[in-house]
C-alpha cells in the first residue's frame, strides 16, 4: 500500500478531534481480534514552538496541511499505522507543545517511548540549538533503546539559517536518523516515519498503548471532557500554522 493506514477506535482518526474526512487510511474495525492488531510503538515529537511538529503529524496521518494550524497546548495524541518491508507498524504519536513554559512536562511524554522525532526549522538557528538540547535530554533519559530522528523541517522555504550539512553532521555524531522535510509540500514526511519503522524492533518493549482516538493532557483544574473518540477532548489555543 502506498500510503499509511489509520487505525483507531472504529473510525479513521481526524486531526485534533474533527470529524473524519476522506483521509488516507482505513479504520481498524472495533471488535476485530487482538491477534490482527499491529504492534504499537509510542512515538514523541519534540522541538520549539512553530517548527512544524503538528503540521508534520497531520500531514502523515491525514495528508493535509493548513496555514492556520492551532498551537498545541500540552500534547495531542494520534495513531497511524504504516506498512513497511512487509510488516505493519502502528505509531502512537504524542505531539508535544513547544512553548518553553511546557518544557518541564516533556519527560512524561517521552518516558517509555520507542521513538522520538526532534524537529527544527531550517530557517531558524535558535530552533536547531534547542533541538540539540532535546536530543541531550533524550540521551540522558536512561532509555538506551529509543530510536531518535532529527527532522530538518521547512525545506520548502528559500531562505535558511541552518546549513543542511550542519544538521546531518550533528546527527551522525550522535547516532541519530536524519532527514529534511516539508509538512507544507509533504516532501519526505512519509519517508521520515518509514525510516523510523525500519529501526523499531518487531515487538514493542513494554506496554505503551493508549488505544485509538485523540487525547490531550489537561493543564487546568477543569473537569476532563470525553471526546467522541473516547479520549480526553483536545484543548488548543491560538493559531499559527507551520510548514
UniProtKB/TrEMBL annotation:
Superkingdom of origin: Eukaryota
Keyword Cell membrane (UniProt): no
Record keywords: Nucleotide-binding
SMART domains according to UniProt: RAB (SM00175), RAN (SM00176), RAS (SM00173), RHO (SM00174)
PROSITE patterns: RAB, RAS
GO molecular function, one term: GTPase activity
NCBIfam families listed in its UniProt record: small_GTP
Official protein name in the record: Putative Ras-related protein Rab-5C
Amino acid at each position: 500500500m502506498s500510503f499509511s493506514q489509520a487505525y483507531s477506535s472504529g473510525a479513521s482518526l481526524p486531526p485534533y478531534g474533527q470529524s473524519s474526512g476522506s483521509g488516507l487510511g482505513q479504520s481498524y474495525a472495533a471488535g476485530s481480534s487482538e491477534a490482527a492488531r499491529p504492534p504499537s510503538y509510542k512515538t514523541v515529537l519534540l522541538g520549539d514552538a512553530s517548527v512544524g511538529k503538528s503540521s508534520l503529524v497531520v500531514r502523515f496521518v491525514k495528508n493535509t496541511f493548513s496555514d492556520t494550524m492551532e498551537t498545541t497546548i500540552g500534547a495531542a495524541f494520534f495513531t497511524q499505522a504504516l506498512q513497511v518491508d512487509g510488516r505493519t507498524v502502528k505509531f502512537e504519536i504524542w505531539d508535544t507543545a513547544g512553548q518553553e513554559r511546557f518544557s518541564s512536562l516533556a519527560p512524561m511524554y517521552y518516558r517509555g517511548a520507542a521513538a522520538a522525532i526532534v524537529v527544527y526549522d531550517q530557517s531558524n538557528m535558535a530552533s536547531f540549538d534547542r533541538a540539540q538540547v532535546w536530543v541531550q535530554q533524550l540521551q540522558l533519559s536512561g532509555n538506551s533503546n529509543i530510536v531518535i530522528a532529527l527532522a530538518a523541517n521547512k525545506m520548502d522555504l528559500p531562505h535558511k539559517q541552518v546549513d543542511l550539512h550542519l544538521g546531518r553532521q550533528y546527527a551522525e555524531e550522535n547516532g541519530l536518523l536524519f532527514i529534511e522535510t516539508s509538512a507544507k509540500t509533504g516532501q519526505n514526511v512519509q519517508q521520515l516515519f518509514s525510516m523510523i519503522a525500519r529501526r523499531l524492533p518487531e515487538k514493542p518493549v513494554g506496554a505503551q498503548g493508549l488505544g485509538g482516538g485523540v487525547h490531550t493532557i489537561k493543564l487546568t483544574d477543569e473537569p476532563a471532557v470525553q471526546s467522541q473518540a473516547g479520549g480526553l477532548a483536545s484543548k488548543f489555543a491560538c493559531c499559527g500554522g507551520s510548514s
